[in-house]
């Protein structure tokens, strides 16, 4: 059966990544427009930039969990051929969904972290429109957190299904061509 230690480690990594993504959503930076001391210019003042660190941390914990699962399963494509059956078909589908959700989660986390770290540096005169203080949209890190959750569940099921297939009857040794019998 599947390695319980590996599954626990990957679960803990995914749980940490999820918690960091939720924390990043809660602590994303906000901006206010301030007037300089002389009263000539408006500029943006940003509060804490901790959400960028949380987002990057979630990015790397999710990456580590995915790497462990893929190394343990030899990325599904390396190694001995798996015997055909429903477990192999399920493993193939879960492998594909696992990578899709992983990619979406990583893009959300990376885009949210980069956007959260970006601070507008220009200023405007006091009689002009105030500067646009750009911040990350609400929900980017939350979307990343939800896809971390999906990736964690799917990758665990993928590894279990892969392990069942790998342990059943050994490698597939069947004939690759069409079986033809003698005609009588």
TrEMBL record:
| Protein topology in the membrane | Multi-pass membrane protein
**Does Membrane appear among the keywords?**
yes
Which GO cellular component term is one of those annotated? endomembrane system
Keyword terms, alphabetized: Membrane, Signal, Transmembrane, Transmembrane helix
Localization, per the record, is: Endomembrane system
Looking up InterPro entries in the UniProt record yields: DEAL/Modifying_wall_lignin1/2 (IPR009606), DESIGUAL (IPR052222)
Q: What Pfam family is a match for this entry?
A: DUF1218
Transmembrane among keywords: yes
**Signal peptide interval:** 1-21
Q: What is its main location?
A: membrane
Q: Report the domain of life of the source organism.
A: Eukaryota
Instruction: List the transmembrane segments.
Output: 50-77, 89-112, 140-160
Similarity comment: Belongs to the DESIGUAL family.
What protein is this chain from? Fiber protein Fb34
């Amino acid at each position: 059966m599947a390695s319980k230690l590996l599954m626990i480690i990957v679960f803990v990594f995914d749980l940490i990544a999820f918690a960091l993504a939720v924390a990043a959503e809660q602590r994303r930076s906000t901006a206010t427009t301030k007037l300089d001391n002389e009263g000539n210019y408006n500029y943006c003042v940003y509060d804490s930039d901790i959400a960028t660190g949380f987002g990057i941390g979630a990015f790397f914990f999710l990456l580590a969990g995915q790497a462990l699962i893929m190394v343990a399963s030899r990325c599904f494509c390396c190694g001995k051929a798996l015997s055909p059956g429903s477990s192999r078909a399920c493993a193939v589908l879960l492998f594909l969904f696992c990578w899709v959700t992983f990619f979406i989660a990583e893009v959300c986390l990376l885009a949210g972290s980069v956007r959260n770290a970006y601070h507008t540096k220009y200023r405007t005169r006091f009689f002009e429109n105030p500067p646009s203080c750009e911040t990350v949209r609400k929900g980017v890190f939350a979307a990343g957190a939800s896809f971390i959750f999906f990736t964690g569940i799917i990758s665990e099921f993928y590894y279990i299904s892969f392990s069942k297939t790998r342990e059943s009857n050994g490698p597939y040794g069947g004939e690759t061509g069409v079986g033809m019998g003698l005609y009588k």
